[in-house]
Design brief:
single chain, 183 residues, mainly alpha, 55% helix
Length: 183
Amino acid sequence: MRLATIASAVFLMAVGLVGHLSLGGETPAAKPAKGVLRVGTFDSRAVAVVYVRSAAGGAKIKRLMEQYEQAKAAGNEAEMKRLQAEGKAGQDRLHQQGFSTASVANILETIQDQLPAIAKQAEVDLILSKWDAVYLAPGSETIDVTDLILKPFNPDKKTLDIVEQLRKHTPSPLEKLKIGTRE
């Protein structure tokens, strides 16, 4: 009887090992190997699109428009011009961020306090735009953390659909974007 129990245990361990190996050798809850650099990457274009459509992005635009209206009511032409230039520069920057690979560091400042928790959840050592990684040492791992970074902006379904479509396209080369030539 004891031999049958041992044979059953060995069989179950073998089945478990085969299942483990067929899943890539790692269970979903497995911890990363010590010494392996785990890099969280994100699509900066998705961050820009979600930000523009978020409450935080909308509030920034609203403040700028309110300041412009106040300057206009006061007849302050210099302030009106300054605010128009600031609005245009901001729009150009968002265009570069949303359609190309421009840095979104200014946007990520709005969720800076949440980035350590995002890194912990994804079990990554650092987070950077996937467009900024020019070399990664052999044995390093990359983990897409885009969705985790988007969550704090509370994107709605329509925004997430836009992001999904965006991910299907290659970013425009930054130097080829025509800034300031809107019709």
